[in-house]
Design brief:
15 strands, four-stranded antiparallel β-sheet, about 210 residues, globular, about 0% helix, mainly beta
Length: about 210
């Protein structure tokens, strides 16, 4: 990280970078259809990384999805993420729902999975080809911090039960060092009103508890 070289991306992208290996990285997020920032589509760009640059191998637009808010890889070709599906209720608004996405071939084919719908995911970590955890928050109907877990590579997800008295309003980041050891950052409201506190959550059973 001592020296950095700038590589410009196409206009209209709002993406984050996830590197699955020393030679492959993904840019994931959303691509806007116009400069006004409306009508976005979830996008995945797969890059081959070289010593002095990188080359775009594949660009995929995921129709019906508006953004990818969390993404992680267990290998160069096995990745999973949390995407947002927009159900429009008006020409300019609607309701976002959780959709999981996963690939086992480096993004040539993407599968869409199932899970709790009222969820906004911000972080995904996959310590193995089959196990991933996702951190986020529920919507206004089911507020509070959420952690989801999959054991089938992202096809289906289940909610991990946090303590009923959990003070956390969201999980802003999640990462697993192994299939057993996982960490999450939880944000909570504190006193006086308006203050915000952050804590580290630790799981030694792969995010099950």
């Amino acid at each position: 990280g001592a020296t950095w070289v700038v590589h410009y991306l196409p206009r209209g992208l709002d993406v984050t970078v996830v590197c699955a290996s020393s030679s492959r990285c993904y840019l994931v997020g959303q691509q806007f259809a116009n400069s006004g920032g409306l009508n976005s589509t979830a996008v995945v760009l797969r890059y081959r990384v070289y010593r002095h640059g990188w080359h775009l191998e594949r660009k995929t637009l995921l129709s019906g999805l508006v953004d990818i808010s969390g993404f992680g890889c267990s290998s160069a070709v096995r990745c999973g993420g949390i995407a947002d599906h927009l159900t429009k209720t008006s020409p300019t608004g609607g309701t976002l729902h959780f959709v999981s996405i996963s690939t086992t071939d480096g993004g040539t084919v993407w599968r869409r999975g199932t899970g709790p719908q009222l969820f906004g995911g911000w972080s995904v970590s996959c310590p193995s080809p089959t196990i991933c955890i996702a951190g986020g928050a529920g919507d206004s109907s089911f507020p509070g911090a959420w952690i989801l877990r999959t054991t089938d590579g992202g096809i289906s997800w289940s909610k991990v039960n946090l303590a009923a008295s959990s003070p956390y309003v969201s999980i802003t980041s999640a990462a697993c060092a192994s299939v057993h050891l996982c960490f999450a950052v939880g944000g909570q409201r504190a006193q006086p009103p308006g203050d915000y506190a952050v804590s580290i959550l630790i799981s030694t059973d792969g995010g099950e508890d």
